Amino acid sequence: MSIPQFYLHERKRGGGMIQPTTTDGVLTAMIAARGAAIANLKKCNEDIEDSCLLQKLNQMIVAVSEVAVVDKAMQEDADKGLVPFFVVATLGTPSVFSCDHLAEIGPVCCRYCAWLHVDASYGGAAFLCPEFRPLMSGIEYSSSFTTSPHQWLLTHHDCSILYVKEKKKFLKSLTIDHPYLKLKKIDEDFNNWTIPLTRRFRSIKLWFVMRDNGIEGLQAYIWNHCLLAKCFEELINKDTRFKVVYEVWFGIVCFRLCGSDELNKNLLKSINSSQEIFLTSTTAKGQYIIQFSVSYQCATEEDICTAWKIIQKHATKVLQGDDTCTKKPTTKPPPEKQNSKQLCTTHKN
């Protein structure tokens, strides 16, 4: 994946741990960032109380693609006496799977001594392919990094990897040092890397995926999905009734039917009610968006064309005002005639 060497345990300074989900990884990173911010404030003022930071954490969502907006927002917080201590940038994250410019965001975070966390929950798998690694430019500014193999790397739920640059700083806010937990001294106590003290043996399933497929097999799998997503994008662009909403980087295409949000909701309801394929939706910038995810491991261009014809068929019915397609079929086809390939599935943490 070509992540920075400082994230590896072999370098002693950093390290990684499998978390249940991306949410757990972000939460633990945020706790560590808050602890580091408190420690920095205490260096400046010994009388500061932890409660001033524990009482409330304000969340601000800004378009980090516009770095000036991020800088301005952090400066405004600092002027109000607040401490901007944690910034999350994305590299292929639900819901629109966009990529932020880390090389521009990183220096801003350094200026405010803020912890930069990179969320690559879905897109991180693509960095197995060298062609996608330029998207990671600026990763050296990050303090932590998450990616979830259960989202796009042939691994079943749950399996999310968290890397941290400075594990001592990370563990300082998470370590529980009760006497009954003090056992034989070991080099690395992974109990303190997660919110629960105990953890499941998640690493073995990821190990089997890597052993069974190899780096070339996983790269071919990722590339196939990306090429098929581009194929689907081309099909959309040929139909003037539809438009692609966001740039297609990976195996997900965000699109919508030209018209109102209600029209798109009816389209999605019609498609999913038919049980021919299954799509998901999201909302970004106040706009309802439909998501097409290439998820089937052995998907082909023929599968994509079949899915597109289904979408077109339901779009025609919805645009004609025929609501009969939104009703569930009263009888299901015999099991042997059901299509076992469900190309599009929901991606969850």
The CATH homologous superfamily of the largest domain is called Type I PLP-dependent aspartate aminotransferase-like (Major domain)
- The structural class is alpha+beta
Low-confidence stretches: 45-55, 323-332, 334-349
User: Do you know the CATH architecture of the largest domain?
Assistant: 3-Layer(aba) Sandwich
Order of helices and strands: EHHHEHEEHEHHEEHEEH
- Let me know the number of strands: 9
Number of domains: 2
Alpha-carbon distance between the two ends: 20 Å
CATH class of the largest domain: Alpha Beta
The main pleated sheet reads as:
5 strands, mixed
| H/I helix tally | 9
* Residues in helices, as a percent range: 25-40%
Mean pLDDT: 83
CATH topology of the largest domain: Aspartate Aminotransferase, domain 2
Describe this structure in words.
Its cofactor is pyridoxal 5'-phosphate. It is built from nine helices and nine strands. The chain has 349 residues and is of the alpha+beta class. It has two domains: 5-200, Aspartate Aminotransferase, domain 2, CATH 3.40.640.10; 228-328, Aspartate Aminotransferase, domain 1 (Alpha-Beta Complex), CATH 3.90.1150. The longest helix has 35 residues, at 203-237. The two termini are 20 Å apart. Residues 45-55, 323-332 and 334-349 have low confidence and may be disordered.
